[in-house]
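In the design runs reported in the main text, the only information available to the sequence generator was the tokenized backbone. The following block is the verbatim input for one such run; it is reproduced so that readers can re-run the procedure and compare outputs position by position.
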């Protein structure tokens, strides 16, 4: 139980640090910054696990794992799962999901198609378009 509680605390610390960094600093590579912050929380988890007692000063005896190494490794696994399977995925959905929907809406708008038709001859002498004239045409046209 100690590993789980410390993993949850480390995960919340990681999210708080990411929030503070993203609010204060203009970060270009946000996913890489999140990974760096997560990696910085791993030594904090290990230190907290090593320095705290098995019962965390409040757990009943039945919730204390007798094999502390196993509990520590499991907590580290849970911490990584919360980050990679939880916080990082939520960030990717929030950051990229909405902007992707906007790009799709812009691409499907009639104004965007008319601008695209005007720009076709200017792109590598039209070779990138391979003579495709409509979006749904078959043959050598790349899917759009």
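Verbatim output:
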């Amino acid at each position: 139980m100690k590993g789980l509680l410390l993993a949850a605390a480390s995960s919340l610390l990681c999210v708080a640090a990411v929030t503070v960094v993203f609010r204060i600093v203009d970060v270009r590579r946000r996913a890489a910054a999140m990974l760096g912050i997560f990696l910085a929380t791993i030594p904090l988890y290990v230190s907290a696990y090593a320095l705290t007692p098995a019962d965390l000063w409040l757990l009943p005896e039945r919730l204390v794992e007798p094999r502390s190494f196993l509990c520590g490794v499991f907590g580290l696994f849970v911490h990584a799962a919360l980050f990679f399977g939880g916080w990082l995925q939520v960030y990717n959905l929030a950051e990229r999901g909405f902007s992707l929907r906007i790009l799709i809406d812009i691409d499907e708008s009639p104004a965007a198609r008319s601008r695209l038709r005007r720009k076709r001859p200017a792109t590598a002498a039209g070779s990138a378009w391979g003579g495709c004239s409509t979006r749904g045409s078959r043959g050598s046209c790349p899917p759009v």
